[in-house]
Design goal:
The chain has a single domain (6-231), classed as Rossmann fold (3-Layer(aba) Sandwich). It is an alpha/beta fold. The N and C termini lie far apart (41 Å). Helices cover 40% and strands 18% of the residues. Helix 6 (202-214) links the parallel strand 6 (179-184) and strand 7. Helix 3 packs parallel to helix 4 and helix 4 packs parallel to helix 5 (154-173). The chain has six helices and eight strands. It has helices at residues 15-26, 38-50, 65-77, 104-125, 154-173, 202-214, and strands at 6-9, 30-35, 55-59, 82-87, 129-138, 179-184, 224-226, 229-230. It has an eight-stranded mixed β-sheet, with helices on both faces. The protein is globular. Bound molecules: NADP nicotinamide-adenine-dinucleotide phosphate. Residues 10-11, 13-17, 35-37, 40, 61-63, 88-91, 113, 138, 140, 186, 188-189, 191-194, 198 line the site of NADP nicotinamide-adenine-dinucleotide phosphate.
Length: 233
């Protein structure tokens, strides 16, 4: 029997990350559920357990180099191999209203979590990855350079533009490693971040990341997807 694929999902204690873990767990993936808060993470594990999905907990704050390296070292010491990484953890800060006025700490926290965080995770976990492997970065339409600027949360939007650029460069660098790297715009999703008025359910928001992790052709790489279709960015 083929061994179940192992997937690491960051920021997976709630929202799109949790739902992606739930859907992939239902499909038979071995889920490494990652988050920065131990209590929230164990509640999410219990929630998955009640739905018959067994997962393992990985305590990791993607904004901290030490935390990410520690998490990778723990899995490495157990000889864990990872098939898919989903970089889902992200923040959108209330004070993110104007790029020329935003507090510098809020700006660097946003870039550090949303763009450097995924890159940090990739760098730390790359030695643990199976080939072929897949990396999926949860981006946002707000990062698009082809759509007009929307005027909302500019630091967040710029962090996602940088994440899209990292996606394309890593895809190029990993061609010989047989690791695909793609990004996803999940649409406007009803989560703590998206708010109650958002147009999409969390189940819908998780569909494209789940597809990229499971059914999408391995040859797709360096692209940005929404609703399983490549989009401009
Ligand atoms: P959410 O409900 O606010 O969940 C965000 C998750 O990220 C939480 O689990 C949070 O953990 C985690 N997180 C934040 N900072 C972290 C850090 N430093 N280390 C580890 N985990 C961290 O948001 P969501 O809507 O599910 O968003 C998931 C992804 O989709 C994000 O990348 C977001 O930018 C993207 N996205 C969302 C929408 C939307 O409409 N919702 C649209 C486009 C893109 P805590 O519970 O510990 O805070």
């Amino acid at each position: 029997m083929q061994e179940a694929k192992k997937i690491l999902i960051t920021g997976a204690n709630r929202g799109i990350g949790f739902e992606t873990a739930r859907q992939l767990g239902t499909k038979g993936f071995n889920v490494f559920l990652s988050g920065r808060d131990e209590k929230k993470l164990s509640e999410a594990m219990d929630n998955l357990g009640r739905q018959g999905i067994s997962a393992e907990m990985v305590l990791m704050d993607v904004s901290s180099e030490d935390s990410v390296l520690r998490a990778a070292a723990i899995l490495s010491s157990r000889n864990v191999r990872i098939d898919v990484i989903i970089n889902n953890a992200g923040i959108l800060l209330r004070e993110d209203r104007s790029l020329h006025q935003i507090d510098p700490v809020a700006l660097s926290t946003t870039l550090n979590t949303n763009a450097y965080g995924p890159l940090r995770v990739v760098r730390a976990f790359l030695p643990l990855m199976n080939k072929p492997g897949r990396i999926i970065n949860i981006s946002s339409g707000g990062g698009s350079m082809s759509d007009p600027v929307g005027g909302w949360s500019p630091a967040y939007c710029a962090s996602k533009t940088l994440l899209n650029a990292f996606t394309r460069h890593l895809a190029y660098e990993f061609t010989d490693k047989k690791i695909s790297v793609n990004a996803v715009c999940p649409g406007w999703v009803r989560t703590d971040m998206g708010g109650k008025s958002a147009s999409r359910s969390v189940e819908h928001g998780a569909e494209t990341p789940v597809w990229l992790a499971s059914e999408a052709p391995q040859s797709l790489t360096g692209k940005i997807f929404r609703d399983k279709q490549e989009i401009d960015w």
